[in-house]
Design the sequence.
């Protein structure tokens, strides 16, 4: 850890992982299609990543963009995808299930958590959390056995500091019960203030920029940028502990 802060980098490709692990990071959240908010990882990508790093790799399971309220058929697919990833070596599964009123779908979450526990891995609830009544939802997730929740303290992207006061309250109330991972808009210019304000000692960042495809300059994609990541890490190294 850098300055006693655990650093998770959101990666959308093998190249992203290769870039990220050149720096002193601690964990990877592995996705595909970051331009769509992150979709389910395929096992071939996970296996390739596990060959080049011993860092924990938590894998996104999200079969489509467009919200977090899923049909029974979509849910069964997600369970199957999660099990394939767990068998392939995923250290955690990142997921989120909501009802149409933005409450947690307890049935789906409990079944996913049970599957993850069968493999003794981590259950991570993603930023679907920010669409809910967070002060109530975090207790529900903790009760069900979720290990960690990724949140910007509300629908604040890219202004995560707007959610810092709530993150601080949740961090105090649920210390030692459920991990709170701040992410969504973490930048070199705000990460020190975020850590200082919330008192949290872990962050999630993509450290990305848009890259133009060499075959078609009109097409671009999101990728981890090493200079951007170094800027975030430098700011963390200089952040004051609270």
Sequence:
């Amino acid at each position: 850890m850098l300055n006693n802060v655990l650093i998770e980098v959101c990666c959308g490709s093998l190249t992203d992982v290769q870039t990220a692990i050149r720096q002193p990071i601690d964990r990877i959240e592995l996705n595909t299609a970051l331009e769509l908010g992150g979709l389910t990882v395929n096992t071939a990508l996970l296996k390739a990543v596990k060959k080049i790093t011993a860092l924990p790799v938590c894998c996104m399971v999200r079969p489509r963009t467009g919200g977090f309220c899923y049909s029974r058929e979509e849910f069964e697919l997600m369970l199957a995808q999660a099990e394939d990833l767990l068998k392939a070596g995923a250290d955690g599964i990142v997921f989120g299930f909501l009802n149409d009123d933005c409450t947690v779908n307890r049935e789906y979450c409990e079944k996913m958590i049970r599957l993850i526990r069968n493999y003794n891995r981590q259950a991570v609830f993603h930023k679907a959390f920010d669409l809910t009544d967070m002060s109530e939802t975090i207790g529900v997730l903790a009760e069900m056995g979720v290990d960690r929740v990724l949140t910007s303290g509300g629908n604040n992207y890219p202004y995560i500091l707007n959610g810092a006061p709530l993150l601080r309250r949740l961090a105090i109330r649920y210390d030692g019960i459920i991990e709170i991972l701040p992410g969504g808009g973490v930048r070199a210019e705000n990460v020190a203030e975020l850590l200082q304000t919330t008192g949290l000692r872990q962050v999630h960042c993509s450290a990305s920029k848009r890259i133009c495809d060499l075959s078609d300059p009109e097409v671009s994609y999101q990728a981890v940028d090493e200079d951007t990541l170094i800027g975030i890490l430098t700011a963390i190294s200089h952040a004051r502990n609270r």
Q: What stands out?
A: The beta strands are 6-11, 27-30, 57-60, 92-95, 122-125, 148-151, 179-182, 202-205, 208-213, 216-224. The mean pLDDT is 96.
